[in-house]
Structure formats: structure tokens, C-alpha cells
Design goal:
Two copies of one chain form a homodimer. Helix content of chain A is 43%, strand content 13%. By secondary structure, chain A is an alpha/beta fold. Chain A has three domains: 24-83 and 314-440 and 447-492, Glucose-6-phosphate isomerase like protein, domain 1 (Rossmann fold, 3-Layer(aba) Sandwich), CATH 3.40.50.10490; 97-291, Rossmann fold (3-Layer(aba) Sandwich), CATH 3.40.50.10490; 495-537. In chain A, the strands form four sheets. The first copy, chain A, has a six-stranded mixed beta sheet, sandwiched between helices. A five-stranded parallel beta sheet of chain A has the order 6-5-7-8-9, with helices on both faces. In chain A, helix 1 (9-20) packs antiparallel against helix 4, helix 6 (116-134) runs parallel beside helix 11 and helix 7 packs parallel to helix 11 (273-283). Chain A is globular. At the A-B interface, strand 2, helix 8, helix 9, helix 14 and strand 11 of A face strand 2, helix 8, helix 9, helix 14 and strand 11 of B.
């Protein structure tokens, strides 16, 4: 790969192709006249179906994008990742979320050590623990079975689990309600405390380092809350953390510690004990394992399928095309399925934290824009929200997700001759077409639809645990592929450090004021000082 | 106002100023060395506080923006709106959401008719109805008091109420749980059905026209569900709809009909019966009225405060500056308050549906980009999600929202010397500073923070109903001001029509297939036909 990939012939040809796509004859409404376009620009793989026929591409562009993938060697790097190479260079670590769903029985080596026995050990501990809780063999201090589980974790220790739990909510039959204490906000804690029975609540503290400020503060609050009811942390708390962290220490009395590993990053960690412990308690371990196996199937597809039928890679290439060549600064994820409501928030973290980087793995400035903004709400809700802008305002590439068979598939009431599920699909089918083709109306400019707005459609056969795993792995692989093409590190997050440092200075000022009401704020920044005055005054 | 406002001197001077702001000496870290900047660029009004000191503006730019407001006559147009003029030209309607929270006793005329008596009548009906339900004087068919309320409504009949209800959740003491059946997805219905007791559930069907496809389909499903339990719609359903709609008809047996008015648009309707009925059942009518009164206070501020201290107007002008001059395509709303989690989704609809337009009220193409993308998650959660990108990737203007006194203010546990609420604020204070000032690190490029990333901070004194109303009204006024500056209509949404038309064609194909399994799909679009085949096959 040349040092500067934007100087390659392929990149320049792609830039020229973007100009070509501005010609009227390359409007999507014309491209879609090709009757073979759908079959040529759609494909099944890893258990899902992807259709990019409404993307602003043609055969020449697709070939150039595949050339880009080849020249940047991303499939080799993806394989290196899966086989345990140190692909996270800035932190000198492997990135082995894929190992967490590897049931092949083959070893995976990190620095000459097979990590699979440890992964299997933790999975086994999760299975046993969740079975014992479900069977009522593990009880709270006062002998009550657990009916509430509160996950104390933020970012990657929260969003993926929340997504998977809400996606599979219909099959949660363990009698346990799941709550997420993510924010350090006492209104997050108070809202949960108002809903739970302390004697029947298990708290899962999740932090790789066990020093995450928000999580530590909430852990402390939870411990005080337990004490106030005469309950013991060693009965009501478990920890998910790294071996040897402050949480994995006899001075931190908890019922059990589940290990997580430095070769699985936070936002890629839902397949590890981070998701495994809460999801197994909520759904039963077997469903968690089915989720892992679905993810594993997509992992193998992402690693092994040839580029031209590799769905995460194709999706990554089209994302780069839309971003770096067509200039779209965002994309929307629109699941036509209410249980997938929290998918956009999880992918927002996964993708934006992984690709919001300015320098390559080697520390050079990246020559192009990197990650875009991701947002989304379920359809058809989104049609009644921001789709006005998507149709007539600023164009936004959209990714539609459809589910062929809903979970609650026995509601057969019809309205206007169709079931509600069919109505949902009528809209799912209509929107990409409306966006792509538009409809001209010179007489009524307010009713003119310019069209030529790109979108993809992904389909799942159902909301099974396997399919939720496939969906997760698809977006993980897609994110990694995009980052590898830009040569940025999808696994670090130095961009969050400055805010932490400044917050630490401000916290110090607050603590000083708590100790001494005469303390005068001196953050070195008059604006920060002013806010400290406002907070301590209690008034606007 | 000249025909083409981008040809005005003011607009051109603003464009030149944007170039000037690129100079190194105009980096925010330098502008913030002015010790008076915070006091000059912050202001209280309408019961909230706004700080724009970390926006990339200076005195000259602020003056030009105020000139722009003056030249476009937006304050006059805002007053016209409040006093009942027909400001929604394409639909020939007034836009009087402000009248819904007018307690002045003064008349408000639409076409020479005072609309206030009708508004007061509906408010009174809401009060009586919610009091009777709370007192157990209105019961279900089998004599059970109502413990669940399901709101059947989508878009503007859903998002604003969801935002207000979740913001005020802590004070919900009526013993009623609120559910939102927005999506036509049966998994939305099934998920709710799994949580409710049908005999103790009241359904509120909300649709101005009573013909919204999703709402009608869900109403039918709910009626069948009631029947299957031997329950009657005339006991378990109420309607919020226009006078004379199909829902306001004796052939539609419901317990009570609450009227909504064509002069209040869907996304501005939470202050009407749309929000009033569910919020009064959930929180009690008095709190709903307090919410209205807070909104009313901000309405008067937005209408009457001079431009230089008019917070919604200043915010609108800065939004236009960031969008049309500095070129930022999005902004993020980051409430440092978990109960405000659904604010971004509501403002996403309010703003993107109102400003995602390509033509002026007169049907001319707008000369600039219009509305941007809005998204957001609460802080500090967002710091552990997409803030990596905000700090080191593509810059995104952010709007931080802080709450001085949390709702659950009795959790005083400290960690690192501060309470959790103080920790939350340490982060709220640190982030805008980190974004603005950055921190250079040539030795470690991955740890370099370019800074110069703009943000605002808004403060509320607490999560009172009044403050939630103020917050709502602030964003409504800001949205209207932005649209008025561009001379687009914030009150119509023709952009959603094409999708509806195409969905209707596809629905027809589905209904034909339901009636006749031999029917061959013929939408005229091979891609749509292919999706119909997939859906009816039940397989990928």
C-alpha cells in the first residue's frame, strides 16, 4: 500500500466517478431502469441479506471500490485480527472479540498463548451462575430470589447489552427485569431505585479497569443503598472486570468475579462476560450462546467470503464512497422493528468511537474525512419524524433493516386489507424507492421530490438470538473494515482523554469546596469557575 | 426583505466573517482569553440560562446576525404567529401552539373567532376526566380502575408526550403506567400487551384526521384485543381528534372525545389535548398545567424580548451561522440529565420535519442549505459513546443541557470527594472547554486535540414541570425562528407524501395477494416486487 492512499490511481478514479454520478443520466431513477440491478446489487451472506441497489454506484464504481479493498489489504488485516495478531498498535493489543464467539474448538493464540481455554472457562462460569440464580440456588441476604438485575456500566459496558436485551425482550422468561445504571446522574440511580425491591436485586458492576469514574461512583452509591437495607455486597453484587483489577480483589467483597480480557475492547465486548452475565440472567444462558453462535457465523463470513460477496466489506466500501466521494456527512439506521430501537445507539458508539479519528495507526494525519455521524429511530416512526428532511432537505444515506417474521406473529387483524406487519413492510418497501426515484412536480414546488437519495436494505429472517448476533457482528466487521481502509485504529479512543483530565481538575475544585466552604474556585478558566459558582449556589 | 436574502450585504458580510474565523487568532482558545466573554455571551430569559461563549462568534458576527434577524423581520412574523395570523401559507392555517398555554384571559382571534374559549373548554374536560379516573369514578368494563394507559399515536402524537412524560417520570404518582403504541409493528403491540392488564387499561387514540394509517391499524388491533377479553371500546378507549373527524362520530364508540385544532400542528401539539390527556392521567392535571405555564413564560420571552437577549432567537441565529456559514451539517443535543433522554428524539422531529425543506413559503428554491441533522444521547453516556468523534474526528456543534438541582436530590454519597451530581457537573463543565480549547500534542499525534469545536450550554434550575415546559417552548421558538429566517414554512410536511403514496400502492398488492394467493405482484418496480415475494415467502 502506498503511504498516501488518496494519491493512488484507484482513489483518483473514484473521485472522477463521483463527478460522473452527478450527470442527470446517472440519477438513481435511471440506474434503476436496469431490470437486473437488484439481483446484481444484492446478496445473502452470514445469515442476512443486503441490497445496495439504491446506492449511487455502478459496475465501474463497485469494481474500483473492490480494488481499493484489495490495495489496502484489508481482508488480510481482518484475518490477522481474527487470528490474534496485535492489530491495535497504539495500545499494543490484539482485538479478539471474534474469539468470544468461536466454538470451533481450535486454538487462538495471543503472544503464543491459546486464549480459548480462558474464554471457555468464563462462558462456563456464566452458564453455571445464571442457572443457579434461575433455579433459586443463589439468593439475596434475606433469602429472596433475584427478580431485578441492575447493570452498573457505561459506554461499551452498557450499550451493546442494552441493544441485545431489548431486541430479545420478548423471550425474556427468567422472571428477571433488567435495568441499566449507566449515567453518574443520581436521577438515573433514583429512577431505578424507585422500581426495584432491594432484597431481590443483583447488581453487576462492569468495568475492565474497575476505575471508570462513573461506574465507581455508582458502585459506591449502590453499596450504600444496600447497607441502608442491611444487605451485603457479597450477596448482592458481582463484578465483570480484568484479572487483577481493584474489582478482582478480596478487599472488594462480591459474590463472584467474571473476567474480561484486554484483547476485547469495550465497544466490542457484548459477546464477552460484559454482555454474557446480564444477558444470561435475563434470557437464560442458552439464548446467549445462540446469540454468540449467530455472531460467529457472520464473523466467518466477514473473514472468509470473497470481497465481491462479503457483506460487511461491501457495506464499508459503500459507506466510504458515500462519505469521501459523494460527501454525505452522516447516515441513518432505520430498523423497521421496534425491538431494534436501541440498535442505532449501540452502532453510534461502535462506529463513531471507532472511526472518529484524525491520525493513522502510524500517527500520520489521515488525508480524508473519517467517520460520519450515525443516528436513527425505528420505522415507521422515523417517517413521521425526520424523513421530511431526508426526502426534501439535506440528503442522508439511510440503512433500512427489515425483519421477515416478527416475534409476536399471531396478531392477524387486518386494516385496509393487510396485517399490521404487512403495513410495516409496505412502508419499508416504499421508502427506499421514494428516496431513490423521487417525483417531479414543477407546478407545486412544495410537492417536488428530487430523489437520487441513496439507501441500503438489510433483511433478517426473524428476531432470533442468532440473528441479533449476526446483526451485531455485521456492524462490528463493517466498522473494522472501514477503519482498516483509512488505516486508522478502530480499537483505541484517546479522544476522550482531554475531557477526563479537565473533569478531574474541576472535581478537585468541588471536593475542596465541599471540605471548605470558603474555598475560592480557581480552575484557570473563568467560564468553568462561573459554572462552579452556579452549581454551588443552587440557582440560575 | 429582498427577494434573495443571500444577496444581501449582511449575508455577504457573514460569509466574509466565516473566512475570518478560520484565522489562527480566532481559534476559540484565543477568543476565550477575553475574561468578559462569558458574561457578554450568556443570558437568562424565559426561566432558563443560555451560554454561547464557546460558539465561534465575535461581536461583529453577533451584530451581523442580529441585523439578519432584523432584515428578515422574524420577530414581527413570530408575533403574527402568536396573535393568530395565517403564517402556515401552504396549508392556509394559523399556527397557535402558543395559545394552548395562554392563561392571560385575553382573546386570540383566528379569522375573527376567539379560539380561547374552545381551548379552555378542552383543558377543563381533560382536568375533569383525569380527576375522575384518578378518583376511580371512571372504570373499565369489569369494574377495575385504570392502571395502564396506552397512547396510540405516531410522530407528533407521540414524541412530545414521551419526552415530557419521561422527563417528569419521578413525580408520576397517579399509579398509572404509560405506554406508547406508536409503530404499526406488531412487536410494538405485542411488547405492550405482554405488560398490561387488559381490564385495567385505557387506550388513547390520537390522530387529528383519525385516518393516520398506523394509528388506525393499531386502533383496530386494540379493539380486537379488547373484544377478545370481552371488554368494550366505549369503556376502554378515548379519542383525541379534530371535531368532525371519523373518530368524533357516534359510529366510533369511545368513552370520550377530546378535540384538537387545525391551528396546532402535530409536532407542536404536546401542549394541546394530544399531550394533555395522557400527561394528566400520568402526572395529574395540575402538573400538566404547570408544564403549560412554564411553556407560556418562554413563549412570552420568545415573542417579546429584544433580539439581543432573546434566547430562542439567538440560538436560531447561531444555528444558522454554524450551518450556512461554518458548514456544520448537524448538531447534537446532550442533556446531562437521564430524565431528558428522549428530548433529542422529540427535537429531532420538531426541528428536522420543520426545517427539512427546499422551497420558500412562496415556492421558490431556498438559496442555502436548510435544516441540519439533530441527534443526541444524555451525558455523560455520550462521552463514552460518540464524543471520541466530536473531539478528534468530524466536528459537531453540541448543545449541552445542565440541571442545577436533580430530582432525586437526596443521594449524597461521595466518591473522590464529590457527590454523583457534582461528578456529572464536573463533566458538563469540562466537555465544552475541552472541545473549545483542545490541547496540542505534536509528540503523540493520537493524543492531539485540535479544539475550536463550538458548543452552547443551557441550564435549568430543576426538572420541574414548568422547566420542562420552558425547554419545550425554547426549542419550538428556536425552530420557528430558523425557518422564518430562511422564509420556509415550518408547519407543513409535504415531504412525507410520496412515501405514503407508494406505500399505498404496495399495500394494494399485498391485499390482492391476501385475497388471491395466485396474484402476481405488479408494482411497476422490480425491486418492490422482489421484496413482496420475499415477505410472502417468509424466508430470506
Amino acid at each position: 500500500m502506498p503511504t498516501n492512499f488518496t494519491e493512488t490511481k484507484t482513489w483518483k478514479k473514484l473521485a472522477a466517478s463521483a463527478q460522473r454520478m452527478l450527470l442527470p443520466e446517472n440519477h438513481l431513477r435511471h440506474l434503476l431502469k436496469n431490470k437486473n440491478r437488484f439481483s446484481e446489487y444484492s446478496c445473502s451472506g452470514g445469515g442476512v441479506f443486503l441490497d445496495w441497489s439504491r446506492q449511487r454506484v455502478d459496475n465501474e464504481i463497485m469494481q474500483l471500490l473492490l480494488d481499493l479493498a484489495k490495495e489496502t489489504g484489508v481482508q488480510k488485516r481482518f484475518s490477522d485480527m481474527v487470528t490474534g495478531e496485535v492489530v491495535n498498535l497504539t495500545e499494543n493489543r490484539a482485538a479478539l472479540h471474534t474469539a468470544a464467539r468461536d466454538f470451533s474448538g481450535q486454538p487462538v493464540y495471543v503472544n503464543n498463548t491459546d486464549v480459548m481455554p480462558e474464554i471457555r472457562r468464563v462462558r462456563d462460569e456464566i452458564r453455571k451462575f445464571s442457572e443457579q440464580v434461575a433455579a433459586g440456588r443463589i439468593l439475596g441476604t434475606t433469602g429472596k430470589p433475584f427478580r431485578h438485575v441492575v447493570v452498573i456500566g457505561i459506554g461499551g459496558s452498557y450499550l451493546g447489552t442494552e441493544f441485545a436485551a431489548s431486541a430479545l425482550q420478548g423471550m425474556a422468561d427468567t422472571g428477571i427485569e433488567l435495568h441499566f445504571l449507566s449515567n453518574v446522574d443520581v436521577d438515573c440511580f433514583g429512577g431505578i431505585a424507585a422500581q426495584i425491591d432491594p432484597e431481590a436485586t443483583l447488581w453487576i458492576v462492569i468495568s475492565k479497569s474497575y476505575t471508570t469514574t462513573e461506574t465507581s461512583a455508582n458502585e459506591k452509591l449502590a453499596k450504600n443503598y444496600l447497607s441502608s437495607y442491611g444487605l451485603k455486597p457479597e450477596d448482592h453484587m458481582v463484578a465483570v472486570t480484568s484479572r487483577g483489577s481493584p474489582g478482582d480483589d478480596s478487599s472488594n467483597p462480591v459474590r463472584q468475579v467474571f473476567h474480561m480480557f484486554d484483547f476485547i475492547g469495550g465497544r466490542f465486548s457484548v459477546s464477552s462476560a460484559v454482555g454474557g452475565v446480564p444477558l444470561s440472567l435475563y434470557l437464560g444462558y442458552e439464548r446467549f450462546e445462540r446469540f454468540l453462535k449467530g455472531a460467529g457465523e457472520m464473523d466467518r463470513h466477514a473473514q472468509k467470503a470473497p470481497a465481491e460477496s462479503n457483506l460487511p466489506l461491501i457495506s464499508a466500501l459503500i459507506s466510504i464512497w458515500n462519505n469521501n466521494f459523494l460527501g454525505y456527512p452522516a447516515f441513518g439506521i432505520i430498523p423497521y422493528s421496534t425491538p431494534l430501537s436501541r440498535l442505532p445507539a449501540h452502532i453510534q458508539q461502535l462506529y463513531m468511537e471507532s472511526t472518529g479519528k484524525a491520525v493513522t495507526q502510524q500517527g500520520r494525519q489521515v488525508e480524508t474525512d473519517t467517520g460520519v455521524i450515525i443516528f436513527g429511530e425505528p420505522g415507521t416512526n422515523a417517517q413521521h419524524s425526520f424523513f421530511q428532511l431526508a426526502h426534501q432537505g439535506r440528503p442522508i444515506p439511510l440503512e433500512f433493516i427489515g425483519v421477515i417474521n416478527p416475534y409476536y406473529n399471531d396478531y392477524e387483524t387486518t386494516s385496509k386489507g393487510v396485517t399490521n406487519h404487512q403495513e410495516l413492510w409496505a412502508n419499508l418497501i416504499a421508502q427506499p424507492r421514494a428516496l431513490a426515484c423521487g417525483s417531479e412536480n414543477e407546478a407545486h414546488p412544495a410537492r417536488n421530490f428530487p430523489g437520487n437519495r441513496p439507501s441500503s436494505v438489510m433483511l433478517l429472517s426473524s428476531l432470533s438470538p442468532e440473528n441479533i448476533g449476526r446483526l451485531l457482528s455485521f456492524y462490528e466487521a463493517r466498522t473494522v473494515y472501514e477503519a482498516f481502509i483509512w488505516d486508522i485504529n478502530p480499537f483505541d479512543q484517546y479522544g476522550v482523554e482531554l475531557g477526563k483530565t479537565l473533569a478531574s481538575d474541576i472535581r478537585k475544585q468541588m471536593a475542596d469546596k465541599n471540605n471548605n466552604p470558603e474555598h475560592r474556585f480557581a480552575t484557570g478558566d473563568p467560564v468553568s469557575d462561573a459554572y462552579l459558582e452556579i452549581l454551588f449556589s443552587g440557582n440560575l
